[in-house]
Write a structure and sequence with these properties.
This protein is mostly helical. The chain contains 8 helices and 2 strands. Helices cover 65% and strands 6% of the residues.
């Protein structure tokens, strides 16, 4: 699926001077697969450790970190920032918001396909990390990959990549995304391998979407518009 999407994206622009998939993306993808596989072997141990070390402070931290993965306010906020920044006053904010929302959509498409394609049992309902039912629509068995982790890693890296010239800001955004992933393990809704795969997917999708948009923006720009009703329009750059 990822390869097919990349082929589509690669063919969407005639500018071949900027590669969409580079050795960096290959390294991240390979590292994600390796980390997911490694964690898969210790998922039960990670679950036991996390559940035995929960306390009041960790509960408060986890509740806050989970909110980012809910997407109820982060996604509308990103949309608002895109809309506000597209006026020209904050082009970097607008660019990061657009990239993040597109990367989030791509990440979730892959994640949701995986959830219902493998139907992995959640750690909250199973003591074994190796129970997969195969394709189905049982909403209780949608542990792999993590949707909350995908929301955080599908959106926040767009801002971190845009503001990579501000290391503390970029690092803080990655730390927030990581906290969301860890909160899902802490709350016993996901195995550690679930959140690892979602994190890697989100990071790769962000880099691919960012590169593709850089190519596309060399000739076309999508901006919000208002003509009696909110909408989008494509502006041709000459």
């Amino acid at each position: 699926m990822i390869a097919l999407l990349l082929m589509v994206l690669s063919g969407a622009s005639s500018d071949s001077s900027r590669s969409i998939w580079t050795v960096t993306e290959t390294g991240i993808a390979a590292g994600t697969i390796a980390a997911t596989g490694l964690l898969f072997t210790v998922d039960r141990d990670v679950k036991d450790w996390s559940q035995s070390h929960k306390n009041g402070a960790s509960e408060v931290w986890s509740a806050g970190a989970k909110l980012v993965g809910d997407g109820y306010w982060t996604i509308p906020l990103a949309g608002g920032l895109w809309w506000a920044g597209a006026s020209g006053r904050a082009p970097r904010v607008a660019r990061a918001s657009r990239n993040g929302l597109e990367a989030l959509a791509l990440t979730q498409m892959i994640v949701q396909t995986g959830k219902f394609g493998v139907q992995r049992h959640r750690p909250r309902y199973s003591s074994s990390p190796y129970l997969f039912d195969g394709p189905g629509i049982n909403l209780d068995n949608v542990s792999f990959p993590s949707g909350h982790s995908a929301n955080a890693w599908g959106l926040l890296p767009a801002y971190a990549l845009e503001y990579s010239d501000h290391p503390w800001l970029a690092g803080g955004l990655y730390a927030v995304a990581l906290s969301t992933s860890l909160s899902r393990v802490h709350d016993n809704w996901h195995w550690s391998s679930d959140v690892a795969l979602s994190a890697g997917l989100g990071l790769v999708c962000n880099r691919v979407v960012r590169s593709w948009n850089q190519r596309r923006d060399s000739s076309w720009t999508m901006v919000p518009s208002w003509n009696g009703a909110p909408g989008l329009m494509m502006v041709r750059n000459f």
